[in-house]
């Protein structure tokens, strides 16, 4: 069976030669190609080109000047450009030992799986390369939560966050993928039903360089998960809730500096409205931006809407109380819910309209 080995890279120069050497040591040269999908800002592309000239097996490089979708986007682009039906996805830093490749390929050869996952958490696998107890705990916990959110589709997968797997490209419905951030396997498995098999492996230490994972990646992951499960509106709601808390904190801070409560409330609201716009641009509507109007025009619409909403909601609440005589807390809750839905609809259909 021939495979395409897709390796997303971001500044991994010192790892390239070692990776290719270790792959060549375990697979026949005529049985695979390596496809680097690279977003580097350093000399990694030049190193890949130099190593490709030395390699017996074909080594290709897709360098992206305008990286789209980060690591996940790179993998989707690799799947589209691969020459073989079976594609391995693996990291370029040797945390995914190439020595596992023959077992992955052999497992796929049994013909009863669309996806073969290299798992740290299947019996016989380890995650020793996860530096520190904190990352290990976060990884374990997020795996549990994720499996709980997709109990059926992830039943057969003990490690949905792994970046090491083999897929039948023809089985993967790549048009359904909206890759954002690091967790591309989860994105694939959660969107459709596949036959999943597993091979345990030992997650190793990095060979050279530093991890690109960050707190921001973690936040992005949580939102990705929420939206994958509950739709775009849930991401919008999470960010709205963060904004509501921030609004209160800023207001309290300004008041403690001696500002009058009305001014504190106005300034806190404006800061929150702007922050909210930046967050939804980045996390909720990122995929719609390129087809929507210009950034300043989106901002103007969003800003105007949110200010109008803030001004209208209070009198609307009084009207509701007068008309129906319901308790004021209930009236506040009703107007907040209506405002939230209208805000979401307005942003989806107007601010980010194609
Ligand atoms: N093209 C591209 N673009 N590649 C990227 C980008 C990007 O924006 N960001 C990271 N990469 C590449 C890295 O160069 C590396 O080859 C691979 O993706 C993994 O990145 P690391 O920085 O090594 O991440 P990690 O080791 O913290 O995370 C890995 O393990 C996690 C499980 O603990 C990844 O495999 C994750 O997907 C996995 O969840
Ligand atoms: Mn790594």
TrEMBL record:
Pfam families, per database record: Glycos_transf_2, GtrA_DPMS_TM
Record GO cellular component, one term: membrane
Protein name per its UniProtKB record: Glycosyltransferase
Domain Glycosyltransferase 2-like: residue ranges: 4-172
Ranges that cross the membrane: 235-255, 261-280, 326-346
Organism this protein belongs to: Agromyces seonyuensis
Keywords for this protein: Membrane, Transferase, Transmembrane, Transmembrane helix
MF GO annotations: dolichyl-phosphate beta-D-mannosyltransferase activity
Domain GtrA/DPMS transmembrane as annotated: residue spans: 236-351
SUPFAM superfamilies hit by this protein: Nucleotide-diphospho-sugar transferases (SSF53448)
UniProt subcellular location: Membrane
GO biological process: polysaccharide biosynthetic process
Family that this chain belongs to: Belongs to the glycosyltransferase 2 family.
Topology relative to the membrane: Multi-pass membrane protein
Primary residence: membrane
